[in-house]
Request: fold
Amino acid sequence: METKHFNSATELIKYLGISRPTFYKRAKRLDISTTKSDYTEDELNLLLEPLSRKDNNTNSPENNDSAVNLLSEQLTNVNKTVSEQHEQLKEKDKQIAELHNLLDQQQRLSLDLQKQLSAPQSESENIEPEIEPKKGFWSRLFG
Reply:
């Protein structure tokens, strides 16, 4: 199926040659998204058909075939989107696991560094400096 790209709903409405309310009513009745920018030829043809004529001919084989084709294409697109999102989730899970590993490693390194920094202090605290006996005022002056 070939698709046609439209930059805005206004551009699509001008292309179809219908009014804005008519476009939205037909799109709602046919379950066609009004926010997307790419439309297939079948979707454009369905949007061009008046709703009353569509309602009268719902049992025609042509309409059923086009509706089936449209639904199968939509299903294919949804399945493709779901599989892409599943792959993205797998990638994000891997990234989160790597981030947790790096965070754990950083915490271990910080703990080791803290232990190394505190170890020399405790050894130096055990060694007491030699304390000179206090001298009185006169002994300091004379001798």
